[in-house]
UniProtKB/TrEMBL annotation:
Organism: Laspinema olomoucense D3b
Superkingdom of this protein's organism: Bacteria
Listed Gene3D superfamilies: Glycogen Phosphorylase B
EC number(s) per entry: 5.1.3.14
GO MF entries: UDP-N-acetylglucosamine 2-epimerase activity
Sorted UniProt keywords: Isomerase
SUPFAM superfamilies per UniProt: UDP-Glycosyltransferase/glycogen phosphorylase
Protein known as: UDP-N-acetylglucosamine 2-epimerase (Non-hydrolyzing)
Length: 362
């Protein structure tokens, strides 16, 4: 019997883990222990995802919560170590580039438990990003490196990573897009609830530290979005970190403005909002890919992206948020861009990444 401990903690990881866990739990001779660090802990950011994604309740909910990077990662490391000592898994499986990812990998490697990293090899080459530090260190600590794209494989080879075995498996997010995309059309009623017309609004999501933690960036983004909203409705599910940044910068959204702020939504509702948007404006790695999967043009409010294929395909475009004028102009310009190259969508695999990962783990 193969025992695998899966460590998750943040909303994007729940989506990725759902696809792999479904295969793990249907495979004979494999036991999965699900560990939720509690990095995302409120109902809209955590509980609803477990329900909608059909993920069983975590075997361990560590309840770490928020904090500075060092404090949060340290508390996770200590708690995960306790779980691993008790469960003694054969593998520890981690996803992406959050503090939960790094803590899970460090706890395992210190106990000489092999680590498998899903989404290995992504690079923004920006060491100011906490995510870049997390993903590079996790790759160095991993024994199995599951790369989603050829570019990710080349990044790992160029860095001379030999102790891990690199496998090009495709993107588990594409697995999720195929599986849950049809479910959203059946079970989500958010368009009716918010009185939205398909292709009649822009969907925006902002949460990355390089935007929320810098006053100039957050002000440029929201003042630009308010100008855009004067001509076409903009819908913004607001991340807790972003809400705090708005309050700290005294950014008040006029009630009469068409910039509509709502609480974070569940995964099926988010998929429905993405599929029916005219344009998506985001700094999220996951959302920019989902835009690509659902054939919706996307503006990425960042200096760089780890998903370079999206920009190379001309489906997504990078827009550093230098000023509200830049944000407003680039959003409007993107509304009239020609369609990108959809033939390159297969760069993310065929929707069978989870099955390949489980096969290799066995």
């Amino acid at each position: 019997m193969l025992k695998i401990a899966t460590v998750v903690g943040a909303r994007p990881q729940f989506i990725k883990a759902a696809t792999v866990s479904r295969v793990l739990r249907s495979t004979p001779d494999i036991t999965e222990i699900l560990v939720h660090t509690g990095q995302h802990y409120d109902a809209n950011m955590s509980e609803v995802f477990f329900q909608e994604l059909e993920i069983p309740p975590p075997d361990y909910h560590l309840g770490i919560g928020s904090g500075t990077h060092g404090a949060q990662t340290g508390r996770m490391l200590e708690a995960i170590e306790g779980v691993l000592l008790e469960e003694k898994p054969d593998w520890v499986l981690v996803y992406g580039d959050t503090n939960s990812t790094l803590a899970g990998a460090l706890a395992a490697v210190k106990l000489h438990i092999p680590v498998a990293h899903i989404e290995a090899g992504l690079r923004s080459f920006n060491w100011q990003m906490p995510e870049e530090i997390n993903r590079v260190l996790t790759d160095r600590a991993s024994n199995l490196l599951f790369a989603p794209t050829e570019v990710a494989v080349e990044n790992l080879r160029r860095e001379g990573i030999h102790q891990g075995t690199i496998h090009l498996v495709g993107d588990v997010m594409y697995d999720a897009a195929l599986y849950y995309g049809s479910k959203a059309a059946i079970y989500s009623f958010i368009l009716k609830h918010l009185n939205l017309r398909s292709k009649g609004y822009i969907l925006a999501t902002i949460h990355r530290a390089e935007n929320t933690d810098y006053s100039a960036n957050i002000q440029a983004i929201f003042r630009g979005l308010m100008q855009v909203a004067a001509e076409i409705p903009v819908l913004l599910p607001l991340h807790p970190r972003t809400r705090k940044a708005l309050e700290q910068n005294n950014l008040m959204i006029p009630v009469s403005n068409c910039l509509q702020i709502i609480e974070p939504v569940g995964y099926l509702d988010m998929v429905m909002l993405e599929k029916n948007a005219r344009l998506i404006v985001t700094d999220s790695g996951g959302v920019q890919k989902e835009a690509f999967f659902y054939r919706v043009p996307c503006v990425i409010l960042r200096e760089e992206t780890e998903w370079v294929e999206l920009v190379q395909s001309r489906w997504n475009r990078l827009v550093p948020p230098k000023s509200d004028i830049v944000v407003r102009c680039e959003v409007f310009n993107s509304l009239t861009l020609p369609d990108g190259d959809l033939n390159s969508r297969t760069v993310y695999g065929t929707g069978q990444a989870a099955k390949q990962i489980v096969k290799i783990l066995k």
